[in-house]
Amino acid sequence: MKFSLQYITKKGRLGSISEIERLPLAAFDTPLMLFTTSGGTVPHLTHETLEMMTKKSLALQLPLASNLRALAATRESKFNIAEFIGMKESLTLCSVNDPLVPLPGGFNQKNSVAVWKKEGRESVNEVAYMDAMESLRPDLYQTLCDSETDAESTAKRLQRSVKSTAGFFEYCLERHKNSKVLEKSSILASLVGGFCSERRRQLTKEMASQPVDGFVIDGFNVAGAKGESAKVELVRELVKETIADLPEAKLRVLPGCWSPEALWDLVQEGVDVFDSSLPTAVAERGSALTFKFCPKTKSFSYNFEHGGENELKSYEISLKDKTYFERLEPILEGCECVACKNHTKAYIHHLMVTKELLGHVLLMLHNLHHYQLFFDKMREAIREDKEETAES
Amino acid sequence: MPAVLADCSTSKARTSLLTLPHHTVETPVFMPVGTQGTMKGILPQQLEKLNCQIILGNTYHLGTRPGPELMAKVGGLHKFMNWNRALLTDSGGFQMVSLLKLAEITEEGVNFSSPFDGTPCMLTPERSIEIQNAIGADIIMQLDDVVKTTTTGPRVEEAMQRTTRWLDRCLAAHRRPDEQNIFPIVQGGLDPELRQQSARLHTEREVNGYAVGGLSGGESKDEFWRAVHLSTNILPKDKPRYLMGVGFALDLVVCCALGIDMFDCVFPTRTARFGCALVPSGQLNLKQKAYASDFLPIDDECDCSTCARYTRAFLHTIVTMESSACQLLTIHNLSYQMRLMRGIRESIKEDKFPTFIQEFLNKLYPGKDYPKWVIDALSAVNINLNESQ
Description:
Chain A has about 400 residues and is an alpha/beta fold. Chain A is built from 14 helices and 18 strands. Chain B has about 400 residues and is of the alpha/beta class. Chain B is about 40% helix and about 15% strand. Chain B has a five-stranded parallel β-sheet. A four-stranded parallel β-sheet of chain B has the order 5-6-10-11. In chain B, strands 1-2-3 form a three-stranded antiparallel β-sheet. In chain B, a hairpin with a 6-residue loop joins strand 8 and strand 9. In chain B, helix 9 (about 220-235) runs parallel beside helix 16 (about 370-380) and helix 11 runs antiparallel to helix 14 (about 325-350). The radius of gyration of chain B is 21 Å and the shape is globular. Chain B: It is found in: Cytoplasm. Chain B: This is Queuine tRNA-ribosyltransferase catalytic subunit 1.
């Protein structure tokens, strides 16, 4: 994998991930949105419906919990995870945590990490983790880490998580270096430390000079609703500090269910890769994204037409709301997605009320399309910024 | 009036073109059921790609949610769900009787308590047609007095006679005869006399097709095929015959030989949700551990988008766990049904339907242990199978 920077400003940078061994012709522009998956599928969608949404190559985020089901089959067969899940043209990045599933906390042990599968909890240690990576052979993966830390963690917990993570890193890197099957895969160092500046600094300084392809800024435990309501000012500060200590040329990944405004803040701190957990979470609760981002003014505008019983964020409308019963216009005027070009709010509302699967399919098609456009616009906003600090 | 393309020179099978307001449908046809105005997570574009030509909607469900007023406002179910090919709606009667505990049938209509607020409601022939007029399907069903096939005694005849009286009320109430075709439903339980009478009474009315009702549960297979055979002998040859609620592959093939043109069933879409895929040899339950290392597609002769990309081993990891699994299996199962029907139609055109049936049964019963009812039914229409004895 090659990560090349194309444009750097004080408030965000543009780059490109290319030369993936398996996908020599593909290039992924950063800031990049990974498609969050479950069990190797983008929730509610298939290759066929994804192709209706975009003809571009996809980059997939594959959380460990649902990858475990694929281990037996990938180990035995010649298939790597991309091939096994029927998405061989897509880039695969294996993550430790699932940005949609908050970690309950209290289950990590000294030498292993609790992984929450749908079928129940499994304990994964560094050996099992690297065994898994060697079976799955993803294009990129992060080192095993203890992410059970958040704003309320005790000092002891923080220390433990950083110590474990550093230990896991050593083992993972060693095995990666010696592994024939992972020769074509890129390894990313996991950085943790909860909301503690000191702990993060300590670990980041250790990792910054390591021979890895990039860094995953983990350990905020901002999955699902926790992410959407996270205090982004705190996170932003910590991310800023972390990035200040990282080499400029390497990839920075920040998973989490950030709100659109928080995500834009984090883009401006210099993060390169995010995931699609927010549009997915919004679709899961029966809502559609309707916010707008203007690349020129770099500001957000919202569609304040909601109101009603459901607790909503400013960036969405809830199709479950009775107010949409007779509304014959699409979710968002001017939106070119499959849902907006072919269906009305009234129909989607009907699908929500009758609990029909197609409702979530249409909301995912809209939300992912909308979020991809948001990323296009953020990249445009960066490009427009004349305050560049360097240009490659 | 359908245009008959070919008749099977051995059995009663035939293949025709049925021209409906929204689409011309090739028969024999299988109609997938999209109960609430949607087909289990599948987009209309995907259904078209699978060559679905006509699908079903349920009047009881749609009449409740979103209701006929919104349907009328939007311009009908076609516009509401953005499906541009043909639609058929049932009358709502069957659902009511099977879904609701306190449905009582009177001469006026079906009496029931609303499942939402318990208020007494009545579904009359007139009201059923009114809702179906609002939904706007190409083919609409009369409200019939349907009894379980296991019912015997005077109730069966009462239901048969009432069905005809309700047919007349439906025809009288129908406000869109140029855009929607009412099909009567032949009843009479398993009594050949009553069935004959029902069919004869219906043929005296001005309609463009007939449904054979009351035959999809409870009765023995032997009684089943005889009732179908009897019905198609009486019903006019120049109009389509629709056998309601029938959809297992074996039943489809045999009933085509017996002269049926249209079928509907929830089976292929319902079984997909439980992780079952339809194949020529029967069904694969992909939840079974046996598929964990099976890297073949569901069916290597299938050209659907699921089989193009996904292996049994992968599907095994997601069935009943991920929502997408339902879509993937539904696409495959619908593709299977569509290909089966196309195979039936093509073989009738080439006058090779008996050969098609033999090959189909070879795959389903490699040991040649065909069920007796299948042997009897086919031999009644001059098809004799290669049996092992």
